[in-house]
Design goal:
Elements (H helix, E strand, L loop, with lengths): L5 E4 L2 E7 L6 H9 L7 E9 L2 E8 L9 H13 L7 E6 L2 E8 L2 E7 L2 E2 L4 E3 L2 E7 L3 E6 L8 H10 L8 E7 L4 E8 L3 E3 L3 H13 L7 E5 L2 E8 L2 E10 L1
Parallel strand pairs: 2-3, 4-5, 11-12, 13-15
Antiparallel strand pairs: 1-2, 1-17, 3-4, 5-6, 6-7, 7-17, 8-10, 9-10, 10-11, 12-13, 13-14, 15-16, 16-17
Length: about 240
């Protein structure tokens, strides 16, 4: 495996290569096992035309996912660097639909529809939780100390319970002020990761919509910062994409 195939979208690490046909779960798990880095997923990029690619995404355990926003951003950077497309304005076909992206050197932004969230809070282990969805499910949990919170223990408790229908991505967060939010995430099929684009979108929209944060806010993950804003009923997310 060539290191130029390894990419990071704000800390989410992927092995990315061109699509040559469907792969079995065993083949995906083998690629993960052979990886020279700890990766969150495998992505195959299929060229559709000069400004459109299709993303085939698999979690590190071989399962599929409806959406991986930071994976989409890596796909766009990979596509322009490998001349699969001719413009920095790239349409990525993901399981949830078309996502429009713009590549600006090492930064990639995306436009995506507004997520939904339940206005009814759920109490889990004395924590108030909000269910949100942007094509994939997220549980948003405000905590007093993001860094020291036992996220794996909490995620196991949630996912083994019958509170939710199936497993969910779990986002813990703390509002620093109206502009900054600090967060960590436990993703389905992966475990704790350094960032989550779709989770950041769900968090930001919920907090913005409930007047807890401003437009043009920043979500701070262990893997780095994601810039968030709303424009014309679309969420704009921007962050860095690098090669490992």
């Amino acid at each position: 495996m060539n290191n130029s195939n390894y990419m990071s979208g704000t800390g989410n690490k992927f092995f990315i290569t061109e699509y040559t046909g469907d792969k079995t779960e065993i083949e995906i798990v083998s690629l993960v096992a052979d990886s020279v880095f700890d990766i969150d997923g495998i992505i195959f990029v299929e060229k559709i035309n000069n400004n459109t690619v299709k993303m085939h995404y698999f979690n590190s355990d071989g399962s599929t996912a409806e959406l991986c926003v930071n994976g989409v951003r890596c796909v766009s950077k990979y596509s322009i660097d490998n001349k699969l497309v001719t413009s920095p304005n790239i349409k990525v076909l993901a399981p949830i639909g078309e996502i429009y992206t713009v590549v600006d050197e090492n930064y990639v932004s995306i436009e995506i529809k507004l997520p939904s969230y339940s206005k009814n809070k759920i109490i889990i282990d004395n924590h108030e939780c909000i269910l949100a969805n942007i094509g994939n499910p997220h549980l948003l949990v405000e905590v007093s100390n993001v860094e020291n919170f036992n996220l794996n223990e909490f995620a196991n408790k949630v996912n083994k319970s019958e509170i939710l229908e199936g497993e969910s991505n779990i986002e813990i967060y703390k509002i620093i002020d109206k502009k900054y939010i600090t967060a960590r995430v436990h993703e389905r099929g992966v475990g704790e990761t350094d960032a989550c684009g779709s989770g950041a979108i769900c968090m930001f929209y919920y907090l913005f919509d409930t007047n807890k944060t401003d437009n043009n806010s920043i979500v701070l993950y262990p893997g780095g910062a994601l810039e968030m804003s709303i424009k014309a009923n679309l969420i704009i997310l921007k962050g860095e994409v690098t090669y490992l």
